[in-house]
Amino acid sequence: MTIVCRIYYESDTKTNATSNFTSLLSSSSKNNVISYNGEPPDLNCNIPQVHAITSQLMLVVNLCVALPGKFTSIFVLGALGSLSDRKGRRISLLLATAGICFNYIVTIIIAEHDISPIFFAVGALVEGFTGGLMSLMTISQAYITDCTTPDRRGVMFGWLQGAILLGMSIGPLIGGWIISITNNILSVFYIATIIFLVFFLFILIILPESLSLEKLNSNAQLQLSKKKPQNLWEQIYIVFEPLSILLPKSFTSTRNNKNDDKNEHRNEKMIFLLANVNAMIAAASFGFQAVFVLYTKYKFDWGTLEIGYYIFWLGESRALLLFFGLPLLVKCFIKDRGTNANDVRSQRMLLDIWIIRIGLIIEFLTFVALGKATIGRDFTIAGVIESFSVIAIPTLRSLLTNAVPAYQVGQLLGALSVIDSIMRIVFPIIMNILYSLVVASAPHVIWSVLSGIFAVAAVLSFFVVVENK
Q1: Distance between alpha carbon 145 and the CA centroid of its chain, in Å?
Q2: So what's the pLDDT on residue 114?
Q3: Residue 44 pLDDT > 70, yes or no?
């Protein structure tokens, strides 16, 4: 924002009262205005025109950085999920970790030897083709699914996401501390590379395979029994075929009786509805991330420190809820396990559905409150309350894994990751464009859009039902 502000105040763009990113660039290029003697005051930078241009700039930068890796990952995440079903989880975990390591190494080489930044795309492409962090998360969930019973799966997914949130909140603080000691930002990349290399060796040497050889052979036979592609169109279809599991009539298992037909149809409907709910949650979450920093800077004049504290406390509160709140909730409501496994399963699935519904309602109400907040304190309180909805996300994933056969778990989670990757690319574009258009007149409109998405998701969740066999 500081760079944009400098160019804005020394270009004729200010005179023309425009807030267009391309015209600003052409103006600064024409006048050769890049340097500025002294930073402009923050108050002067915190105006709608500068925010609109910064939003457009962030859109372009994010596209340049995200598209090489995220676009390629769209085509491979589903395939990697299916690969883990028939070849084992470890090989997909190794591929994802190796891709991340390679990307970090490329970044270090570029920075140390002043190589053209265009080579950042090489690291991003390799990470994208190996699945990256999205694949690492997906296959980890598949690994947990292999090792847990359905009634414990949601809690385990919650612990996994809690650990991730804990790392995301503590990581920046540790990174800042390391940079302050070493006075070198690359030291963080060196340490991150070492951590992923150690993790790679841990998977390779210590981590056992979660699927038995017999199970792997069975999964491979079930997947290979599908019809082989006969022409180019069928070969293209195979790239997107893993996504078919999210659509009705995606199961290929033989139906033996009417009850199986009814249960299968019910599960297909559940998967389709929950996949749409998952897509809406991802869209709203990535949309929030795209405009959060700009909005809080413009509306509350928050700086890096305030934003850092906000992210830290939200991450910590969410992690605590996932580590302790979700297990306690399950323990309170699932008391009598009884002797009938089907009754226990139906009871847990019903609880999962209500956790999802209540979580989405909380998301809707708190995002409305975020738009209504006029001071930073109210915005923070709304954010803390919104943290209570975090248990809905791992619960949704757990519920989906209970609705598919074991040999399709990897494919299902891979397909969900593909949808998440698409939303990660598309929705920040939409929200950055929207913010640049409304920041001068009604910046709170972005929260109305996001709360509306959660409202639709909440309504869809009430069409998901569990029927006793």
Answers
A1: 19
A2: 74
A3: no
Q: Where are the alpha helices (DSSP H) in 114-231?
A: 120-129, 132-147, 150-182, 186-201, 213-224
| pLDDT score for 260 | 44
Give the model's confidence band at 338: pLDDT under 50 very low, under 70 low, under 90 confident, else very high: low
Which CATH number among 1.20.58.760, 1.20.1250.20, 3.40.50.1260, 3.30.428.10 corresponds to the domain 2-9+42-223+257-461? Answer: 1.20.1250.20
Answer for the pair 156, 144: CB distance below 8 angstroms, yes or no: yes
Tokens of 250: 């995606």
Give domain limits for the chain.
Answer: 2-9+42-223+257-461
Q: What is the mean pLDDT of the chain?
A: 77
CB 158 within 8 A of CB 144: no
Closest to 197 measured CA to CA, from 90, 94, 88: 94
Q: How far apart are CA 423 and CA 277, in angstroms?
A: 13
Q: Is the pLDDT of residue 63 over 80?
A: no
Q: What are the phi and psi torsion angles at 361 (to 5°)?
A: -65, -40
Residue 461, pLDDT score? 93
- How far apart are the two ends of the chain, measured CA to CA in Å? 58
What is the number of H-type helices and E-type strands within the chain? 21, 0
Contact criterion met (CB below 8 Å) for 292 and 51? no
Taking Cα atoms as reference points, which of 131, 150, 141 lies closest to residue 74? 131
CA distance 364 to 388: 12
Pure H helices in 373-408 = 376-386, 392-401
Do 70 and 55 contact (CB within 8 A), yes or no? no
SS3 content of the chain, % helix, strand, coil (to 5): 80, 0, 20
CA gap 228, 433 in Å, rounded = 43
pLDDT interval class at 452 (50, 70, 90):
very high
Task: Look at 259 and 157; give whichever has higher pLDDT.
Answer: 157
Q: pLDDT tens across 98-143, in order?
A: 989 998 998 889 888 877 666 777 887 788 788 788 788 888 888 8
Task: Write the pLDDT tens digit of every residue in 222-279.
Answer: 766 655 555 545 555 555 666 777 877 644 444 444 444 444 445 788 889 999 999 9
Scanning 301-340, the segments in alpha helix (DSSP H) are: 304-320, 326-333
Q: Is the dihedral of CA 134, 454, 299, 45 positive or negative?
A: positive
Q: Do residues 270 and 247 make contact, with C-beta atoms less than 8 angstroms apart?
A: no
CA gyration radius for the chain? 24
Burial of 316-355, coded b for 16+ CB within 10 Å and e otherwise, reads: ebbbebbbebbbebbeeeeeeeeeeeeebbebbbebbbeb
